[in-house]
Design a protein that fits this description.
heterodimer; A: 418 residues; alpha/beta; Fumarate Reductase Iron-sulfur Protein, Chain B, domain 2; FAD/NAD(P)-binding domain; 3 domains; five-stranded parallel β-sheet; 15 strands; globular; B: 406 residues; TIM Barrel; Alpha-Beta Plaits; eight-stranded parallel barrel; four-stranded antiparallel β-sheet; 11 helices; 18 strands; binds flavin-adenine dinucleotide; binds flavin mononucleotide; binds iron/sulfur cluster
Chain lengths: 418, 406
C-alpha cells in the first residue's frame, strides 16, 4: 500500500532516527519493541541483530510490519511527529524481517509442565511462543485448520499477504508447541485439569446484528464475506450496488473487498460523523482512493425487498448529542429518512464473544471479559487475552496480552514450586 | 540554455582578479575528469564556471596505466558521498591533445581562464611541458606536485610537494621555462609543515599556490574478503580522498599558508556550497577550485554557488570578493592565546523536541551536568557544566547554545 523502502531508503530512514533517550516510541508500543536499539543495529549493517530484537519483543513482527496501526502507537509518540514526520518504524520492521529472517535459535522443553492455549490467533501465538521460550511444553487448540485467527482469514485480500503471517509462524519451527489444529477446544474445565495453566484467546466471532426486519438470510455478514474472499470462494459483486453498514476498521476492509469483488458502487453507512470514526487514517485514505463513499450520520432501519431480493436500504438521519459519555451519542431524526439503492447489504457493526465456557469467568454485563493486569481471569490458573478481553482490536495489542499472560503463568508456576 | 527563469541576482560584482587575470566569478573547475575532455570543459565554461584547469598531462609518450574501478566513497549516516576516493592517475591524453584543447578553448572563451596542469619526471620534461602550453596560449600553468598516485618526489612513493628542497628546485625549473606566464604549484595537505612547503614554492619563484590536492587515504576494507576498497581483483591501494569530508583539512592548510607566507592562494578541497567557499576566502583563498561536487551534481552547481555568494555579499555589504579574503585570519590564534571565559549550556525549551540526546551525550561523554525533567526537558546544572560545548552539537533541533556567564 505504501512505497516499500529500498535498502538505501531504509538506511536513510534509520539514520533519521534521533536515538532518543528512554524512547517514547518504545513506551507507546504495546509490546515495547526496543525501537532505537533495533534501528541502531540496522544502521550498523546488522539486520540479523535487528531482527533478533524485534522478534524477541513481538512474535508477530512480520505481520505487524505490514498492518500495525503505528499511527496510534509508536509513530504517534515519535518526537519528530509534527516536526518532519515520524520515523517509519513499521516499515523498518518490514525491511528488517525481510532482510534477515532466522528461526528462533534454540528450543528446549526444559520444564515438565504443560500449558494449554485455546485459540491460535495473534494472542494465542504470542503466548505459545513465549511459553515455549520459557521452556514449557505447549498445547495450542485451534478450531481452524491453520493458526492465525483473523489475520489469516478476515483481512481484506488487497491489504495483507498471508505469507507475512507464515513467516512469523515459521520462526516457531522446532518449538515445543503441539498444534492441535482443526479441532475446537473441548471444555475449559478439562483442559485446566490436564494442564498446569491455560491461556484463553478465542477472539470474538459472534456477529452483532443490525436488528432490522428480514435481516437474517438477506444481509451478508462482513466477517464471512471477508473470509470467503480469503478462502478463494468470495462472492462476485460485479456491477452491483453495495451498501456496507459499520464505521470501524472492519467495515473499511469490507468496503475494500467489495471494490475488489467488482462492485459498481460502494457506500458505507455510519451513524456518527467523520471525527468520531474509530478508524486508522491509512485505511480510510485507501478506501477513499478506491472510490468508497461514506454516508455519515445515518443508520439503516429497513430493507426494501422485491421478489425476495434486496433493492435498497431505508436509512434514518441521526444527529449527535452530548450525553456526557466518552463519545457523543447518535440520536434519530425521524422525518429525514432516505433510501440508498442496494443489491447487496453487508453488516460490519462488530462481533461479540461466545460465552459457552463451562467455568465461571464472572462476565458480568461487560462486552469484554474482565481480566487483571496480569491477564488473570476469575478462574484459577486460567488467563485470557486478545479481542476477548479488550476493544483495542489490534494484532500488537493481542500479542502483548499473550506475552504478558505467558510471563504471568511462568511467575505463577515458579512461585508455586517454591 | 537555462530552463528556469531566474530573477536577477543582487547587483554584486563577483569578479576576481587572480594573478593579473580577471575572472567573472571566483569558481574554477579543478584538474579532474570533468576537465579531461574538450566537450566537457566547454560545457563547464558554458554553464558559467569562470575557468578550467585541464586535467594534468605529462610528457611521456608511454600510456598512463589506469586501473579500474578507480572511485570509492565514504558513506555515513545514509549519505552516499560524504567523501570520495579515487585511484585515478593523470590524464591519459598526450600533451599534443591537451595543447589542442588549450588552443580551442582559449579561442572560444577569450574571457575565461584556460589553465593547464602538468606533471613531469625530469627538468627537461617539466620545462618542455611548460613551454608547449605557454605557446599554445594557456593563461596559467598549474603544476601537480601532489598526485597521491604519482611518485615523483625524492623518495620512491613520496610526492614532490612532500620535500621542501625538491619543491623549490622543480618550481624553479618550471618558472624558468614559463617566463611571464603565471605558475601555480598544487600541493598536498599531507606534510608536517605546510608553511615550509609554501615557502619553498615562493622561493622557487611560483606566482601562487593551489591548496590543496586530495588527501592520501585508505577508503576501506571489504570485511568479507579483506581486500582494500576499491578492490581490483582482491588488491587495492591508497586513494586520494576528496569532497565534503576534507573541507576542515583544507581550511587549516590554507589558513596555515596565509598566516605564514605571502603568496596568492587558489583554494581547493572539499568545497561544495557557496558558504564553504566564503569560509575558504576567509582563511585566505582568492578563488575556489572544485572537483568532487561537480562530479556528483554536475556543472550547473555554479549557478547555486553564484546565487548564494551574491546574496551573502549583498547582505554583508561586501562589494568585491577580495573584501572577504583573509577576514578570519586575525581571529586565528594559538591555543595559549585564547580568551578564557566561563560559558554554560542553555536550552531553549520551546524548541526542544524532548529526545534526550543531549542528556545521553553529557552523561557518557561530557560532565554529567544534564538531567531530564518529568516533562522530558533537559535541565543543566551550572555547577557541573564546564561549558565544553558537546551538547549543542548533538541537539537535532539546534535549541542549545553556549552562553557566557559572569
Ligand atoms: C477485518 C479486520 C481487519 C483488521 N485489521 C487489522 C489491522 O490492520 N491491524 C491490526 O493490528 N489489527 C487488525 N485487526 C484486528 C486483529 O485482527 C485482531 O485484534 C486480532 O486478530 C485479535 O487476535 P485474537 O488472537 O484475540 O483473536 P482472533 O484473531 O480472533 O483469533 C482467535 C482464534 O481462536 C480460534 N478459536 C475460537 N474459539 C475457539 C475454540 N473454542 N477452540 C479452538 N479455537 C478457537 C479462532 O478460530 C481463531 O483462530 C483487524 C480485524 C478485522 C476483523
Ligand atoms: C577522479 C579524480 C581525478 C583527479 N585528477 C587530478 C589530476 O589529474 N590532477 C590534479 O591536479 N588533480 C586531480 N584531482 C584532484 C582534484 O583536482 C582536486 O584537487 C581534489 O579533488 C580536491 O577538490 P574537491 O574536494 O573539490 O574534489 C583529481 C580528483 C579526482 C576525484
Ligand atoms: S509493533 Fe506496531 S506499535 Fe510496536 S513498534 Fe512496531 S509498528 Fe510500532
Amino acid at each position: 500500500m505504501t512505497d516499500l523502502l529500498t535498502p538505501h531508503g531504509a538506511h536513510r530512514e534509520a539514520w533519521r532516527c534521533l536515538q532518543c533517550w528512554d524512547a517514547p516510541c518504545t513506551a507507546a508500543c504495546p509490546v515495547h519493541v526496543p525501537i532505537p536499539e533495533f534501528i541502531a543495529r540496522l544502521r550498523g549493517a546488522d539486520p540479523q541483530g535487528a531482527e533478533e530484537l524485534v522478534r524477541s519483543a513481538n512474535p508477530l513482527i512480520s505481520t505487524c510490519g505490514e498492518i500495525c496501526p503505528d499511527e496510534q502507537y509508536c509513530a504517534r509518540a515519535c518526537v519528530l511527529r509534527g516536526v518532519e514526520g515520524p520515523i517509519r518504524v513499521r516499515e523498518l520492521h518490514r525491511f528488517v524481517t525481510e532482510t534477515a529472517h532466522a528461526p528462533w535459535p534454540t528450543w528446549t522443553a526444559s520444564r515438565s509442565k504443560r500449558v494449554a492455549v485455546v485459540g491460535g490467533g495473534p494472542a494465542g501465538i504470542a503466548c505459545a511462543r513465549e511459553l515455549a521460550a520459557l521452556g514449557y511444553a505447549v498445547d495450542v487448540y485451534e478450531r481452524d485448520t491453520a493458526a492465525g485467527g483473523i489475520v489469516r482469514h478476515n483481512l481484506a485480500v488487497d491489504r495483507f499477504a498471508v505469507d507475512r503471517l507464515d513467516r512469523d509462524l515459521s520462526a516457531l519451527h522446532g518449538a515445543p508447541i503441539a498444534w492441535h489444529l482443526g479441532q475446537a477446544a473441548g471444555s475449559l474445565r478439562e483442559i485446566l485439569a490436564a494442564h498446569a495453566a491455560a491461556f484463553y484467546a478465542p477472539g470474538t466471532h459472534e456477529d452483532i446484528l443490525l436488528g432490522i426486519p428480514d435481516e437474517e438470510g438477506l444481509v451478508t455478514s462482513g466477517m464471512a464475506f471477508l473470509r470467503e474472499w480469503r478462502d478463494g470462494i468470495g462472492k462476485d459483486l460485479t456491477g452491483k450496488e453495495v451498501v456496507v453498514i459499520g464505521g470501524g476498521n472492519v467495515s473499511l476492509d469490507v468496503t475494500l473487498t467489495a471494490v475488489h469483488a467488482g462492485a459498481a458502487r460502494v457506500v458505507l453507512v455510519y451513524r456518527r460523523g467523520p471525527r468520531e470514526m474509530p478508524v486508522w487514517r491509512r485505511e480510510l485514505e485507501e478506501a477513499a482512493t478506491r472510490g468508497v463513499a461514506i454516508e455519515y450520520y445515518a443508520r439503516p432501519i429497513a430493507l426494501l425487498v422485491e421478489a425476495g431480493r434486496i433493492r435498497g436500504v431505508q436509512c434514518r438521519r441521526t444527529r449527535l448529542v452530548d450525553q456526557g459519555a466518552r463519545r457523543p451519542v447518535p440520536e434519530d431524526m425521524p422525518g429525514f429518512d432516505f433510501v440508498l439503492p442496494a443489491e447487496e447489504v453487508i453488516r460490519a457493526v462488530g462481533s461479540s464473544p461466545a460465552r459457552d465456557e463451562d467455568v465461571d469467568l464472572r462476565w458480568g454485563s461487560k462486552a469484554t471479559l474482565p481480566v487483571s493486569e496480569r491477564m488473570e481471569t476469575a478462574a484459577p490458573s486460567l488467563f485470557a487475552g486478545g479481542d476477548l478481553v479488550s476493544r483495542e482490536g489490534t494484532v500488537v495489542a493481542a500479542a502483548s496480552h499473550g506475552l504478558r499472560a505467558a510471563r504471568a503463568i511462568h511467575h505463577m508456576l515458579t512461585e508455586a514450586a517454591r | 540554455m537555462r530552463s528556469i527563469p531566474v530573477r536577477p541576482l543582487p547587483a554584486v560584482d563577483l569578479a576576481v582578479v587572480f594573478l593579473g587575470r580577471r575572472l567573472e566569478n571566483p569558481f574554477i573547475l579543478s584538474a579532474a575528469p570533468s576537465t579531461d575532455d574538450l566537450d566537457m570543459a566547454r560545457a563547464g565554461l558554458e554553464a558559467g564556471w569562470a575557468g578550467v584547469v585541464l586535467k594534468t598531462t605529462s610528457m611521456e609518450g608511454t600510456p598512463v596505466p589506469l586501473a579500474y574501478p578507480m572511485m570509492s566513497t565514504m558513506e555515513w549516516a545514509g549519505r552516499r558521498l560524504v567523501g570520495m576516493g579515487n585511484i585515478d592517475l593523470i590524464s591519459e591524453h598526450h600533451i599534443d591533445a591537451v595543447e589542442e584543447r588549450v588552443r580551442v578553448l582559449s579561442r572560444e572563451f577569450p574571457t575565461k581562464l584556460i589553465a593547464a596542469s602538468i606533471m613531469g619526471s625530469s627538468k627537461e620534461a617539466w620545462q618542455a611541458l611548460a613551454r608547449r602550453l605557454r605557446d599554445a596560449g594557456a593563461h596559467l600553468i598549474e603544476c601537480s606536485f601532489s598526485c597521491p598516485q604519482g611518485s615523483m618526489g625524492e623518495r620512491p612513493g613520496a610526492m614532490l610537494a612532500q620535500s621542501a628542497p625538491a619543491t623549490e628546485k622543480a618550481t624553479g625549473w618550471v618558472k624558468e621555462a614559463a617566463g611571464d606566464l603565471p605558475v601555480l604549484i598544487k600541493i598536498t595537505p599531507q606534510v608536517a609543515d605546510v608553511a615550509e612547503i609554501a615557502r619553498a614554492v615562493k622561493n622557487g619563484g611560483a606566482d601562487g599556490i593551489t591548496a590543496s590536492n586530495s588527501v592520501p587515504a585508505l577508503m576501506g576494507v571489504d570485511i568479507e574478503t579483506f581486500a582494500p576498497i576499491p578492490s581490483l581483483g582482491g588488491f587495492g591501494t591508497y586513494s586520494g580522498f576528496t569532497g565534503p569530508a576534507i573541507k576542515p583539512l583544507t581550511l587549516r592548510t590554507v589558513a596555515e599558508i596565509a598566516r605564514h607566507v605571502s603568496l596568492p592562494i587558489s583554494g581547493n578541497g572539499g568545497i561544495s556550497t557557496w558558504s564553504d567557499a566564503v569560509e575558504l576566502f576567509a582563511v585566505g583563498a582568492q578563488n575556489i577550485q572544485i572537483c568532487t561536487a561537480v562530479m556528483h551534481h554536475g556543472f550547473r552547481i555554479v549557478d547555486d554557488l553564484c546565487s548564494g555568494l551574491a546574496r551573502y555579499m549583498a547582505r554583508k555589504g561586501f562589494t568585491k570578493v577580495a573584501d572577504m579574503v583573509g577576514k578570519a585570519l586575525p581571529h586565528i590564534v594559538e591555543h595559549d592565546e585564547l580568551p578564557r571565559r566561563q560559558v554554560r549550556s542553555r536550552v531553549d525549551e520551546t524548541a526542544c523536541l524532548r529526545c534526550g540526546v543531549c542528556y545521553v551525550a553529557c552523561r557518557d561523554g561530557g560532565h554529567r551536568a544534564i538531567t531530564m525533567s518529568e516533562e522530558r526537558l533537559p535541565v543543566v546544572d551550572d555547577e557541573r557544566c564546564v561549558g565544553c560545548g558537546l551538547c549543542p552539537l548533538t541537539c537535532p533541533a539546534g535549541c542549545i547554545r553556549m552562553e557566557a556567564v559572569a
